[in-house]
Amino acid sequence: MNTSRPVLWGVLNVTPDSFSDGGQFLSHDLALAQATTLLKNGAAVIDVGGESTRPGAPRVTPEAEHERVIPVIEALTKRGDVSSIDTMNASTASAALDAGATIVNDVSGGLADPDMFRVVAEADVDYVIMHWRGHSDVMNDLAHYDTVAKDVRNELHERVSMALEAGIRPERIILDPGVGFAKTSAHNWQLLAGIDEIVALGFRVLVGVSRKRFLGELLPEGHEMAQRDEPSAVVGALLAGRGIWGLRVHEPLIHSRALDVWQAVAQGGRQ
Ligand code: PMM
């Protein structure tokens, strides 16, 4: 049985409108303070994003995105923190890498910007290819699958082939099934049930379920966003046993505790 512990990526959205924490960390100092908390609570990577991808969210210009994320990444780099840039724009990825980010997290898997694969290949950095079918304004209309886990696997496999062709090394690739992106709640659950399909592709797998709406459907109406951390952490622990490599989370502490429990059960004791 797999007992290696998934790494935690702490979400830092420097946006006015992200669905779970929008507006909270728009100021530079607040963003850095939140990064400090995420690291203290067990995150190994700070995933910095400047464009909300919640359903229906308007696009931001790459210039506005740069203004939001680059100063934060520069400051994190200065402190020696590991950061990832959550962007679909090659120019933002490039500027973030220049500012010291070491990972590109592209929720479009290279589909949104034709220049992204080149930037990543040239920089030779870790690259998250997430399953994606279209921008936030249209993605709900694209949520049609025969068997969601198999379809996502096949579409990710296609993206991987293109990435390899563009010169990205296989050991740099991290796959993400894209929970909530062009997927209904039912699709999200089916995708998690079928996560082995994605793990079987042989790459590191990162999963982001943290605070997503389908988890909120398990909770009473009117619940606080932070109440979604409990179901997020349970999903995280269950996925840990299925061989995933990382979890992208808003509250690392509760996920870390859940992973402690999972690991103690998996290993038959604490080590
Ligand atoms: N989800 C969101 C943003 N970026 N990146 C990856 N790799 N995987 C995800 O599931 C993902 C992501 C949207 O959630 P947020 O608004 O809480 O950041």
Write a concise synopsis of the structure shown:
The chain is of the alpha/beta class and 271 residues long.
Structure description:
- Strand 4, helix 4 and strand 5 form a beta-alpha-beta unit.
- The protein has helices at 28-40, 62-79, 90-98, 116-123, 148-165, 185-193, 195-199, 213-216, 229-240, 252-267, and strands at residues 7-13, 45-49, 83-86, 103-106, 126-130, 173-176, 204-207, 246-249.
- It has a single domain, classed as Dihydropteroate synthase-like (TIM Barrel), CATH 3.20.20.
- The protein is built from ten helices and eight strands.
- The structure holds pterin-6-yl-methyl-monophosphate.
- Pterin-6-yl-methyl-monophosphate binds at residues 11, 13, 18-20, 49, 53-54, 86, 105, 107, 128, 130, 176, 178-179, 206, 208, 248.
Tags for this model:
alpha/beta; binds pterin-6-yl-methyl-monophosphate; single chain; about 270 residues; eight-stranded parallel beta barrel; about 40% helix; TIM Barrel
- Supply the helix-strand structural class: alpha/beta
CATH architecture: Alpha-Beta Barrel
- The level of helicity is 40-55%
Form type: globular
> How many domains make up the 3D coordinates?
1
Strand content: 5-15%
Average of pLDDT: 94
How many beta-strand segments?
8
Rg, rounded, reads 17 Å
Major β-sheet profile = 8 strands, parallel, barrel
Just give the CATH class. Answer: Alpha Beta
Low-confidence stretches: none
Q: Find the CATH topology.
A: TIM Barrel
